[in-house]
Write a structure and sequence with these properties.
The structure is a single chain. The chain is α+β, with helices and mostly antiparallel strands and 675 residues long. The strands form nine sheets. It has an eight-stranded antiparallel beta sheet with strand order 14-13-10-11-12-15-22-20. An eight-stranded antiparallel β-barrel has the order 24-25-26-27-28-29-30-31, surrounded by four helices. β35 and β36 form a beta hairpin. The N and C termini lie far apart (69 Å).
Length: 675
């Protein structure tokens, strides 16, 4: 077995590889850019080597720099993680020439299947049904428009070397095909150093289901079930689960056997994933093969008990697989939510900055990859992360902060465990998508398992503007807030140094205001908790060990309720199940007077284009004096490897431009003004 491996990656996947290597007694080497000097993967590894400036094309994807780090440290093998150099045949070739093992598939398999154009041709030759498309390289935007018309809109414009949603656009007309081609080409060049583009038919209403395969160099191969990855935003997966709530055993077997056959056809040896789109009749069509470890691999580990990273290392060491297809048993249900540094209230635009608070829910200590989850109890919580409290979220890399996973014996139990885990996850300092993830977990379509890849687009067509809790849930929160406020008021009465003759008394009657509603309540406390009585005569029993100052409250109020707690004047900011609530708890007289207070209106920014995220201005498409039409492109902002085109919301005239290509802007900086 290897004594030392180098991890040619960063963030959570580098930390994940280190955990398995440590379990196997293998020393690890981290590489890092200037931006990652204090990163978690650097702290966890046994050694760390600096490889250059923050941009990936000057550090993490520069093969010569990675090879130098290998020579300096004497690493015998390299795990590439995902992204960066993980599917780069030249990197695998360089390692082979240096006598260093690549913890991934052979160079030939990467070339055959890692390139999406080549892989589709191989699949067609093997009589695998593929999505209609143009397999050749496309030279310019005009050719892209011509091909798109021949295929028929809508079309998917994709980077041949792409992955992780980078270099992908859906075009519904000629203008979008032209814009999408150039943006995809730019993103592909920046992210992968390869700007080749191809176009295929975009199949509407599909499900995205993928098969995990594991092969060795001795001709053995197995499939480890499927993952349902249909909930995506901008072609990037957000929620994954295993198994799929849609597949039956016959379809699973057919997809699995086809995936293993395809892998063996190209001499595959390592962990890999074959992706399919599946229609409503359970017909499946080959999309591509990812010749690397997938981001969402933890859900497969949770339902099979197989440590995929360990298996990759063993296969790279020349060992045969220790399991056969008959050994693979799918147990229980696992769900993964990707926590992104993206602001859901700003159309999921990237957010950067310092994590002033980062407190994930407690992981199940008894569980480690490679064990059967059921051995750890009825529920498992796992959080794969590469950040820590006080760390920086950089604009140079992917915005994923963590992958929160839950496992339980049934799908419903796994969903409920995820709801509680999301409510317990404390993140402050940046915009993040925790509220959105909570909303998805409560969405009836997700609960039924009827989602397609159009789920987010169809269910949140105007973007995400928060969650409104149903009446029953709102009353539970109101009862908890009243009981908690009473506890805080009692503490305030005990503050020393009060003025004489100014005694603070804590009454029993309160008015709780939240989500535009008011609840008049009466709180009766005893040593075990409080009984909160509403005007309609209903009562709720509240019990909790919360004390003022705690930022997380677990309350028993007609069941388990987890609240993130912030202090505001006269109440709390409470966040639960995707809702962000300003909750005021007042005496009846205070509530009466509060209704007379004038509402403070926000400033008018309707005549300005504000930068929606910290980023770099790539180009400005208009000039002062130009008349712009609704939907017209105004400028392009790049952040976290993604290009975002900002468009006019109405017909108007540009009166002032405050930024130019190359400028770095902060959130809400004024890019241009209109008349």
């Amino acid at each position: 077995m290897f004594d030392k491996i180098l991890i040619a990656n960063r963030g959570e996947i580098a930390c994940r590889v280190i955990k398995s290597a440590r379990k196997m007694g293998i020393k690890t080497v981290a590489i890092y850019s200037d931006a990652d000097k204090q990163a978690l993967h650097v702290q966890m590894a046994d050694e760390a080597v600096h490889i250059g400036p923050p941009p990936a094309n000057q550090s993490y994807i520069v093969i010569d720099k990675v090879m130098d780090a290998i020579k300096k440290t004497g690493a015998q093998a390299v795990h590439p993680g995902y992204g960066f150099l993980s599917e780069n045949a030249k990197f695998a070739e360089a390692l082979e020439a240096a006598g260093v093992a690549f913890i991934g598939p052979p160079k030939g398999a990467i070339e055959a299947m890692g390139d999406k154009i080549t892989s589709k041709k191989i699949a067609q030759d093997a009589n695998v049904s593929t999505v209609p498309g143009y397999m050749g390289l496309i030279e310019d935007a005009d050719e892209a428009v011509k091909i798109s018309n021949e295929i028929g809109y809508p079309v998917m414009i994709k980077a041949s070397a792409g992955g992780g949603g980078k270099g992908m656009r859906i075009a519904w007309n000629d203008e979008e095909a032209r814009e999408g081609f150039q943006s995809s080409k730019n993103e592909a060049a920046n992210s992968f150093g390869d700007d080749r583009i191809f176009i295929e038919k975009f199949v509407t209403q599909p499900r995205h289901i993928e098969i995990q395969v594991l092969c060795d160099a001795h001709g053995n191969g197995v499939y480890l079930g499927e993952r349902e990855c249909s909930i995506q935003r901008r072609n990037q997966k957000v929620v994954e689960e295993a198994p799929s709530p849609f597949l039956d055993e016959a379809t699973r077997k057919a997809m699995g056997e086809q995936s293993v056959a395809l892998a063996k056809a190209v001499g595959y040896a390592s962990a890999g994933t074959v992706e399919f789109i599946v229609d409503g009749e359970k017909n499946f069509y080959f999309l591509e093969m990812n010749t690397r470890l997938q981001v969402e691999h933890p859900v497969t580990e949770l339902i099979t008990g197989v440590d995929l990273v360990e298996q990759m290392i063993r296969v790279a060491n020349g060992e045969p697989l220790s399991i056969t297809q008959d050994d693979v048993k799918l147990q229980g249900w696992a769900i993964e939510n990707r926590l992104y540094a993206e602001d859901p209230y700003r159309n999921f635009l990237p957010s950067i900055g310092r994590l002033t608070r980062y407190r994930p829910p407690a992981e199940t200590k008894a569980y480690t990859p490679g064990t059967q989850p059921g051995d750890a109890g009825d529920e498992v919580v796992r959080n794969d992360t590469g950040v820590y409290e006080g760390g920086e979220i950089s604009m140079y890399y992917d915005p994923m902060i963590a992958k929160l996973c839950t496992w339980a014996p049934t799908r419903d139990a796994a969903i409920e465990a995820m709801r509680v885990a999301l409510d317990s996850f404390e993140v402050e300092g940046i915009g993040h998508n925790l509220p959105f993830l909570s909303a998805v977990m409560d969405h009836p379509i997700f609960i039924k398992g009827d989602m397609t890849t159009a789920f987010i687009e169809e269910q949140y067509p105007e973007g995400f503007d928060g969650v409104e809790l149903p009446e029953a849930q709102l009353k539970r929160v109101a009862a908890a807030a009243a009981a908690m406020y009473r506890v805080a008021e009692i503490r305030r009465t005990r503050v020393s140094g009060r003025m004489d003759n100014h005694e603070r008394r804590v009454g029993k009657k309160w008015v709780v205001s939240l989500q535009g509603q008011e609840f008049a309540v009466k709180v009766k406390a005893d040593k075990d908790g409080s009984t909160v009585k509403f005007e309609d005569g209903s009562k709720l029993r509240v019990a909790s060990d919360w004390t003022p100052g705690d930022q997380l409250a677990e309350v028993d109020v007609d069941g388990r309720l987890v609240l993130k707690v912030g202090k505001i004047s006269g109440g709390f900011r409470l966040r639960t199940r995707g809702a962000d609530l300003k909750v005021h708890v007042r005496t009846p007289r205070q509530a009466e007077l509060a209704k007379l207070m004038p509402e403070k209106l926000p400033p008018d920014t309707s005549k300005m284009l504000l930068c929606p995220m910290p980023g770099l201005i790539v180009k400005v498409d208009v000039e002062v004096g130009d008349e712009v039409q609704e939907g017209q492109a105004l400028c392009t902002v790049e952040a976290m490897k993604m290009e975002n085109i900002l468009r006019a919301e109405k017909t108007t005239v540009v009166t002032k431009i405050n930024a130019a290509a190359g400028d770095s802007l902060a959130v809400d900086d004024v890019i241009m003004e209109f008349e």
